[in-house]
Amino acid sequence: MKKRGRGRPRKQDAMESRELLLRAVGAIMREEGYTGLGVTKVSARAGVDKKMIYWYYQNFENLVKTYIKEKDFWTPVFKKVGKLRSPEKEVICEFLMKVFKEQFRYFLAEKEMQEFIHWQVSESSQMLKEVSEEREFQGAAIAKLTDTFFEGVDVNLRAVLSIVLGGIYYVTWHADKNGSSVCGIDINKARDREAFERTIGQIIGWAFDKAG
């Protein structure tokens, strides 16, 4: 697509340019990691004048943030949580087991999200902090649904889920970056991958069983 000069872009062209810019962010994240991102590189990859980044997104950080929010696994999950009204313990347990197993499969398959989470734990920036805080705020609704099940019980479900999530990230990074195993588990192998996913469900199930 040709780069545009000055003047307000037409609606169809604007939609196409936005999509090209978002795709360029994803492509660079997959191929070079977050360190490869930059205004000039994204503009060149998209074939869109870099001035349009500021026209559509105000700044480069908002472009990246928009891409992350559209790609994030948790965005549709939070919408599903909003439809759960006072669910039974068994229902919410099954829901969480399913969600975290799906999150594992998604994170393993999506190189861009692997890079983004790596970026979050490697650098400090306002944009990354805002994305994380927004996700935490929305994610609090999940934990809130479970509070009554764990009152007076020596089990902290939030801690359990954070350990599960951190384990997913760590084991996936090892498998992707080094092709290596963690505690003898190599999720590049189907058998170990299935065992890891099964264990995610078991851990969450054990926590709910402990709640009585």
UniProtKB/TrEMBL annotation:
InterPro entries in UniProt: Homeodomain-like_sf (IPR009057), HTH_TetR (IPR001647)
Keywords on record: DNA-binding
GO MF term set: DNA binding
UniProt DNA-binding residue ranges: 38-57
Pfam families for the chain: TetR_N
Superkingdom per UniProt: Bacteria
Keyword Protein biosynthesis: no
Statement: the UniProt record of this protein carries the keyword DNA-binding: yes
Domain called HTH tetR-type: residue spans: 15-75
Protein's recorded name: HTH tetR-type domain-containing protein
